[in-house]
Amino acid sequence: MPNLVVDFDKLLTLAGTDLGFTEYREITQEQINKFADATGDDQWIHVDPERAKDGPFGAPIAHGFLTLSLIIPFWGELFDVEGVTTKVNYGLDKVRFTSPVKVGARIRMQATIAEVTEVKGGAQIKVSSTIEIEGQERPAVVAEFLARFYK
């Protein structure tokens, strides 16, 4: 169950709401390999653990876009809107991959609803999110993403 579930009618009042943190998820080599297969990005820093040991990060790292894609399941832990017919991911305004995520690392997301605006038939929210790596000061990803909810 998400941390916060609201009715659509309350959505427009939520700008500035801190949604807190998700649970941690471990990044596995299997996830990385599947992502590489799905995207065709099979660079050795991701999929060759032996070679990656001697590479710039000392271990295989997750693709930045793999880490970014985890916003979706993380988002489901934090927030939901009831009383709508459709929910869509509308896009991204800003994304930065600020630190590599090594195999075995645990990550979680913190999110804040930065803006809420009315759109035809519904509302759009801009979410400021940070994907953190357990035990590291520098985050893995900083992103602003947009979601729309239609009545």
TrEMBL record:
Domain annotation MaoC-like: ranges: 15-127
Pfam family, one: MaoC_dehydratas
Family: Belongs to the enoyl-CoA hydratase/isomerase family.
Protein name: MaoC family dehydratase
Species whose genome carries this gene: Arthrobacter gyeryongensis
